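This section describes the prediction task in plain terms. A model, or a person checking by hand, is given the sequence of a single protein chain and must write out its three-dimensional structure as a string of tokens. No templates, partner chains or ligands are provided. The sample shown here is typical of the held-out split.
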Amino acid sequence: MEELLARLAATSLAEWMRLSRWGYAGVNALHVLGIALLVGAIVPLDLRLLGWRRRLPLTALGQALQPVAIAGLLLALTTGALLFLADPAGYAATPLFLLKLTLVGLAVANALALNLGPGLAGAAPRRLRLAGGLSLGLWFAALAAGRFLAFV
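The expected answer:
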């Protein structure tokens, strides 16, 4: 594992991430944008799953918000991988970073379990509430872990 992390750190892209003030800042800004798109789309959908604004058709809301959340997730994952290159060994050795990755993985697994299983239209209300509550908790915990990384 150490050898892989050292190889990643030795790439020209990793060097650019470490040395380019504007490059790192730009990638970081795109990472924040991805997170904003993801959370901005997932929170209203999760709240609807929990029963908020029941007059809004769940399937239509999901069709509108899920693509935005997916685009945000893909942008956050891509830019997060670039940010990781700035210090692969340092991040890999930080328990808070590993917690963040675990929380993101669990949140994505929760969404996949619902959408690849019964889906928004076919799931029982209890299953929808469970998925929405888990999603909110996991994404907020992942956000907190990510923010705390900057200060520890």
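For orientation: The chain is about 85% helix and 0% strand.
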